[in-house]
Amino acid sequence: MPLDQSELDLNTYFATQQEVLLQKESDNSLNTLKVRNLTKSIWPLQLILLAGVFLIYGQSIGFDYNLDDEIVLQPASAFSWDGVAAALTEPYYNQAGAAYGYRPVTSLSFYLQAALLGNQPWIGHLINILLYSSIVLLLFQITKSLSNSVAVAFGIAMLFCVHPLHTEVVASIKNRDELLALLFGLLGFLALDLKSFWKVLALMIGIFLSLMAKKTGLTLFLVAPAVVHAYGRINNLQFWMIGAYMTALLIALAPLPDLSDSLFIAGAYLIALAGYYIWDQVHSRLWNYRWVCDAFALLGGIAVIYCWLVSFSSTILLLAFALNSGLFAWRKRISNLIALWVSAGTLSFFTESWYLLPWLFYTLHPDRLQHKPLRYMLAGVLVMLTCQQLLASNKPWSIAIGMIYGLPLALANMHKYVRWVVVASATIALGINVFTFKDPVYVIFLAAIVAYQLTPNKLHRKPYAWTTAILVLVLAQTAYPPYISGKDKLQQLHTLESTDQEQISQSGRSLDYIENPLATQQSLANHAVAGANTYLHYFKQFWAPTNLSMYYGFQTIDVLSYGMALWSLLVFGCLMLLLIWLRCWNLLTLLALWAVTLLPFSNLYIPMAGIVGDRLSFFASIFMAGFALLAIQKIRHTKLKQATFAIIILALGFLSFQRTSLWKDKETLYLHDVSVWPHSVKLNQLAGDLLYNKGITSQSAEELQKAYGYFQQGAQTHPPYYLNWYMMGLIKQQLGNPQQALEHYQKVEDSEYVNQNIHLNMAICATLSSDYQLAERYYTRAIGFEPTRLQAYLNMVFMYLKTNELTKALGKNQEALNSFPDNASLHENHARIYYQLDSIPQTIHYLEQAIALGKQTPSNTEFLAKLKAQIEER
């Protein structure tokens, strides 16, 4: 019986659906097979990564404690919840009356190790190796997920695994904080593969635990919302959730003493997030660019109102001007033009830089000067402000500069020549400023005009070029140091030469803590130069990791070299231009993330201890490893690419193994690094301390003399550093050369930071040199210091007895007895003095007191009996 059309259609539908289901089952089985095959294919790579870690760092299991490990060692005790609470609430370091840092996750790990496993060094080293292995495997998994390439993930993880910059972090037990911070951070990013809400929660928890281990990754986590959003791992709502969370953490954890500063930084961070979000929406064609332009114009208007009604801020106005000028150059919106003019006018009015107004408009868009109304408006403003300044005060040079800048307006119709007129007038104004030494801040400002006018015309239409140029100009204006004439310079030198020694020694104290020239040279220009040189150092150390050191410090890196800073700008500028020209946006992104992660350690804001440090680039090296791997992948020849990668891995692995072997004990590490960097004050101090303690323990004059050599090298490197002179004096005193010891002590005797035992030591040296008058002066100073008071009294009385000044001896000993009435030695001294004064009853009385207080020696007992017998005979 034939089927009708509806039955035929129904059968066709069911047949089609059956084919679809079969296809889906086939696809699922293929996908499952692919996943299984992929899982099977990556475990050998994971084993290779683990083998690399243990081949390099396995040797450290047999190592002893090393640099600063004693800071984190906790006394072995039974586990208790009180101990856990103390680890979570107390400062990270709290010894010798000093406390700093809050790293509860790290403190808890060391407490649990001490309570559950013990304090053997091999346990700490093994834990570090296991943590580093976990980090390498996590990095492999995350990069595989992001790049969808096992080869790329393996290459980045292997470069990270074998790099010598990580030897300090892994081989030093104390640096477990760096390992834990990176581990939890990577766990948070790994959670981005989870579903919906849980990925955000897990990322937040990972970031929080990372920062509670150490705040090393704070800047990296600040850019995390933008990075993961750009990769499509989170939606807009999740982006703002993470952004708000990071803002709260920034306020709580930013190393700023004032809450208002933290709130300002947090506000700037939110604005940066908003800027990224707006750019992303416009780039994705979800928003109209007109909204963006008008929004920033509105922000510029708010900034102007704030400066007029609340508080003037040149920084806010300059930022508003930079943003609106860039947007106007991009889209020519009249709202941005009004905003930049209003902000520039306000800035000019408050800073008296009104004569710079004409070029502002011209440089934005010269064609606009063809409109007569605009020319008349500019000329009117110029005349009005000139008259105002003329009536307010006599400023002929400012008026002259204003008239010079009026020339482009007068000659605006000669379009082909206007550019050169502006260049000429700016050059003349620059010369006037230099010649008269007036308004030196504008020297760079005016030089920038000349440079900008000479740039190709096509750059004038690029918003990023505009914004970047003006932001650099802002930094230059702020950082430019005030002009110092020759006379003023001589006066400064004269003042320095007449400065008290105690004031000069304060630089020694600063360098004792951080050993960084920025500690005493806090200017924005120096910070900018130091930042450029610091970035160049870290870049060089990644690509050529030789001459590594546990500590760098003073005079190891010429951090304030302007020539080096220019080289740094040249290297990074050329590198960025090359990447832009080649359109290598992934490499440019990795380079930017590397720079952002290193930002807290770049000396741009806070002077870093030792200037630089290998451990400080631990986080950032992830991005540089990705940069290196992707750069290697640009090699087209496959075998050459593989050979290059293999050679780099073998070379880095060898250097890492060699560097790790130096961390076996303090003596090996200290003496090696100080031989590489002989001008580091801290390295010489550490090596000298090590050999001094060894010499005192073994009573070896040879070891003490070696220690003296290191302290002497440190003193020659930076003479104001007090500790080297103190230790040199101590060693000479131990070696029986009191005269030389006294000369060393006198270099730093007035320092408020030096150990106050120095006065007692100086008195002893003066006594041994038979300079009793000098000894008396130093004993008097030692008596004023509580820890040395009693010993100073005893030694001073002994000196008076030696010189047979019995009256002085008796008076000083009585003074001591008034302060220490229960001291047996002072009573014994009194007995000795009265015996020499032939006062037997007084001698018996004080000798009995000394014996009663603990001086019951056979000689004292026998002498007391003899004295009593003499009294009975009489």
Automatic annotation (TrEMBL):
Alphabetized SMART domains for the sequence: TPR
Record's keyword annotation contains Transmembrane helix: yes
The keyword Transmembrane helix is assigned to this record: yes
InterPro entries from the UniProt entry: O-mannosyl-transferase_TMTC (IPR052346), TPR-like_helical_dom_sf (IPR011990), TPR_rpt (IPR019734)
SUPFAM superfamilies registered for this protein in UniProt: TPR-like
Domain of life: Bacteria
Parts of the chain that traverse the membrane: 41-58, 122-143, 149-167, 179-198, 204-227, 239-256, 262-279, 291-323, 338-362, 374-391, 397-414, 421-452, 464-483, 559-581, 587-606, 618-635, 641-657
UniProt xrefs under PANTHER family: PROTEIN O-MANNOSYL-TRANSFERASE TMTC4 (PTHR44227:SF3), PTHR44227
Identification of the protein by name: Tfp pilus assembly protein PilF
Source organism per UniProt: Marinoscillum furvescens DSM 4134
